[in-house]
Amino acid sequence: MSLHSGFARPTSQTSSDTMEHVLRADASLVGRGLFELVKKVRGEEDLPDEPLRARFTKDVALDTLNREEIGERLQRLTGEDPETILEMAGLPPKEQASIVRLAHFTILTANSTMDAQPVRQDQAAKDAAQAAVTLVEDAPPAPTPSGTPGEAPRRNPRQRGAAQGAPPTTPEAKPRRLQLGVGQRRGRPR
Question: Which residue intervals make up region (Disordered) (predicted)?
Answer without folding.
Answer: 118-190
